[in-house]
Amino acid sequence: MPAQPLAKACLARYGDRENFMYLFNPDRQVEFSEHPDRCYFGSAPTLGTLRAAYGKNMPTSWLVSQLLNLSEYCGCKNKLTDAQLEECARVIASEYFYLKTTELMLFFARFKAGRYGRFYGNVDPMVITSALAVFRGERSEAIARHDQEEMKKEREMQVSEAISYEEHMKRKQQKP
Question: Whole-model pTM?
């Protein structure tokens, strides 16, 4: 049993490896993509947490199913080979271990929607990883916007709870 709190929480919430794969299967990409904020800011596990919870091969296994789905979806004559699927999944798991599974599902849904380009005749792993770099930039912008909104809410709350200088002096004088 993993010692890390996030890994334990992942196992408690999603159950065993098979149940996780069922809950986060490629058929749910569009469903997840309908709520981008939940993908970015929700509590889904990262690829790193999957590794800690289910073993070192879990992120790659999960990504292979997502990549295979993308490869089939694109309708290109030449699909990704097993070796390309495995290597692309390992590269993504290594480079983007901090991304949540829901964020990656959002990425794959957006890729299918044509947001990050297309394949020409062959499904190309380099196109996928290049598109993922573009997605990472979008993610950074979404996080920055979210942080700004949270800071604005905090300032507004502080202003609404603030008292005037006169009220402060009055309260200060009333203290024994």
Answer: 0.85
